[in-house]
Amino acid sequence: MNSLTRMAALSFLIGLYVGCSPVKFSLDDSKCKDSGCVVENGKYSFNYSATAGYGKVDILIVNDNSASMSFEQARLAPRFANFIGDLDSRNINYRIGMVSTDVAGANKGALLSFGGSPYLTPQNADRLSLFNQTIQRPETLACEKFIANWIRNNGGNTSSINSSAYSAAYAQNCPSGDERGVYAANLVVNNNPSSFIRSDAHLAIIFLGDEDERSGLYCEQRNSNGACVKMSSQFAFDQMDQPGFLISNVKDKLGADKFNSLSVHAIVVKDQACLNQQNSQALDNYAPTTGLVSGSYGANFLAFTNQGWGMAADICSSDYTSQLGQIRTQITDRIKDIVLNCSNPTDLIVTVSGSPVSHHIDGKTLKFNQYLAPGTSVTLSYKCDSLN
Description:
Organism: Bdellovibrio reynosensis
Largest sheet: 5 strands, antiparallel
CATH architecture of the largest domain: 3-Layer(aba) Sandwich
Structural class: alpha/beta
Number of domains: 2
Helix content: 25-40%
Number of helices: 12
Protein name: VWFA domain-containing protein
Number of strands: 15
CATH class of the largest domain: Alpha Beta
Radius of gyration: 29 Å
CATH superfamily of the largest domain: von Willebrand factor, type A domain
Order of helices and strands: HHEEEHEHHHHEEEHHEHHEHEEEEEE
CATH topology of the largest domain: Rossmann fold
Distance between the termini: 54 Å
Oligomer: single chain
Shape: elongated
Strand order of the largest sheet: 1-2-15-11-12
């Protein structure tokens, strides 16, 4: 065999060996020290268990700030301490924002301030006191005092409020009496003030109120089942007042993932007994004002809970601890993301107790297509070309 033939044969054999041998990449093995991976066939390989159900949630509280709500606001304030404490104990990365039902003013749809911050997070050391201060609306209390003092100054004559002078003074001293909670929530979805709603967080909305949307005045006539069969011309709903529009608006504005994890809850007047209680309250402890500001059955807000979007609670409850606990459980049960060690991993296998779990990938985030209870152990196996 001549030298050229020998050289060609040698080159062929070398090429054959290289082509059939495992490809070696210069992956940094030291990166596996902290992340727990191993390097196999030129990829970072992971096999571990993670706990599902602890992630991000943005909680929007829609607070009825009209006259007659100060009593309920004061009772709810300390009960939310347990609600927030439960989120803290589960290491939930939360934001709590609040908006009023008054959408008539210049700041309609703006988040209420928590001592200068647009929302609360676990990093707010004084978050409980800030929440208590913010849920108890000063404009609500001032309005109630204004109404009571007006009647006091008119010798206890409640008919004195049927004057143009009273109407003008009311407009100066009170929030709008036209409560539009669903409308306010839609404004937040549309405008996302202070970037409150995060793209990768579950969204929960909680309505608080002793009156229905538009104080229930939107309906002139209901059937025996309580359904509105004749809408008022003066207080007719805009599409922004409609529960169905809020649900579709979340999907259109915020995306399918947000829609799939959305929950909507209502702490409102649920029955006739609660309505009777609301209609017997006195403003500023002044007896002549008893029943002057009435409540209404929260039908529009309960439409969300009746369709399975969340929990309904009674605003007349003597102790909100259990009801808020149920709402908190529903909120945390819907948090279902796990952050992986790389974007778009290959050979991904996800199981719970040995059974596959339906999921999809968004960058580095593993999103489950079903709700997993907090604390669920998920087994993960996948490979990464690089760690990022």
